[in-house]
From TrEMBL:
The keyword Cytoplasm applies. One of its GO terms (biological process) is pyridoxine biosynthetic process. One of its GO terms (cellular component) is cytoplasm. Belongs to the class-V pyridoxal-phosphate-dependent aminotransferase family. SerC subfamily. The gene is serC. Pathway: Amino-acid biosynthesis; L-serine biosynthesis; L-serine from 3-phospho-D-glycerate: step 2/3; Cofactor biosynthesis; pyridoxine 5'-phosphate biosynthesis; pyridoxine 5'-phosphate from D-erythrose 4-phosphate: step 3/5. This is Phosphoserine aminotransferase. Its EC number is 2.6.1.52.
Length: 354
């Protein structure tokens, strides 16, 4: 039976990428050796790393604009502390829009003063804060562009006179914007790019080297820049697979092309949520995420029937995060419009039955 994977990650990848990645595990570039048993310093793998870094910058339109792309390890969670370690001298601002920003704030507090410039904690992160003022004199302002758990997404980004840092783990490469408004972007690979195990960091070189503390080599962005993202053994499989996904995206027409599909998918699902009395959306309408749609069932008695219907339709991964409950449909780049159609059909069928 065909499966429709709405899981929040990890990770949803195009079938052709999975196929090529598995072939490379058996025989990489016709070498007779596996991708995961060759040297990461071999010519073939160095070319993979370079291609992946270059494609990331190209797709975000950040080539030749003073940025470096790195594929690091430790997940986005390590970036919570690396950002502060490398950039926080005295005080930084954070917009608290959910669990992941909360975690980033906790790490930053180890290094200096943290000002919560805005927060939506009062309503369990249903909305994106607005109307806040960014104080002057910050070392940086940190935001989370898409809140994977709560299903909210920034549509407009704050204007700042300090570096703007963005955790884009769950919506990178999914929508067009001026990426040069950010000074550092990071994203764990495992939503829109590749398997868990590598984290893309795009950093504007001129914001680095300004803190007075000594930064350990492995946690220092400048180390990784100087070593072309090969300071230590990279996660070769995750980087290679990410490179394949970025190639797939480029061949499709880049972010502009995928954004069109992502908007269609989100429109289809949200209009069902809004029209079908069996369901109600969680996040405020104007802040809804194109990637993670959160919703509840209005009558809990119907839950078992709905869950069984989902199973029969081959729909996977629709359970909401434990801090929100209900359902969450994650519609990352590789999820097809057809899969969203299948979900919407099950929801309408539920309305007829309910
Ligand atoms: N930030 C966001 C927005 C996320 O969605 C996640 C994981 O889902 C993380 C950070 C944590 O990522 P990692 O597991 O790579 O540390």
């Amino acid at each position: 039976m065909k499966k429709h994977n709405f899981s929040a990650g990890p990770c949803i990848l195009p079938k052709e990428v999975l196929l090529k990645a598995s072939e490379a595990v058996m025989d990489f570039n016709g070498s007779g050796l596996s991708l995961i048993e060759i040297s990461h310093r071999s010519k073939d793998f160095v070319a993979v790393m370079e291609n992946a870094r270059s494609l990331a910058l190209e797709l975000l339109d950040l080539k030749d604009k003073g940025y470096t792309a790195l594929f690091l390890q430790g997940g986005a969670s390590l970036e919570f502390l690396m950002v502060a370690y490398n950039l926080l001298e005295t005080k930084a601002g954070y917009l608290n829009t959910g669990t992941w920003s909360d975690k980033a704030i906790k790490e930053a507090k180890l290094f200096g003063e943290v000002i919560e410039v805005g927060s939506s904690k009062d309503e369990n992160f249903k909305y994106i804060p607005k109307g806040y003022t960014v104080p002057s004199g910050l070392d940086y302002l940190h935001i989370t562009s898409n809140n994977t758990i709560f299903g909210t997404q920034f549509k407009k980004f704050p204007k700042t006179d300090c570096p703007l840092i963005c955790d884009m783990s769950s919506d990178i490469f999914s929508r067009t914007m001026d990426f040069s408004q950010f000074d550092l972007i990071y994203a764990g690979a495992q939503k829109n790019m590749g398997p868990a195990g590598t984290t893309l960091v795009i950093v504007k070189d001129d914001i680095l080297g300004k803190v007075s503390r000594k930064v350990p080599s492995m946690l220092n962005y400048q180390t990784h820049i100087a070593k072309d993202s090969m300071f230590n053994t990279p996660s070769v499989f995750a980087v290679y697979t990410s490179m394949l996904t970025l190639e797939w995206l480029k061949n499709l027409g880049g972010i502009t092309a995928i954004e069109e599909v992502n908007e269609k998918k989100a429109r289809l699902l949200y209009s069902e949520i809004d029209l079908n009395p069996v369901f109600e959306g969680y996040a405020n309408i104007e802040d809804r995420s194109l990637m993670n749609a959160t919703f509840n069932i209005t009558d809990e008695v119907l839950k078992t029937t709905f869950d069984n219907m989902l199973k029969e339709a081959g729909i996977n991964g629709l359970n909401g995060h434990r801090s929100v409950g209900g359902y969450r449909a994650s519609m990352y780049n590789a999820l097809s419009l057809e899969s969203v159609g299948v979900l919407v059909d099950v929801m309408s069928e539920m309305e007829r039955k309910g």
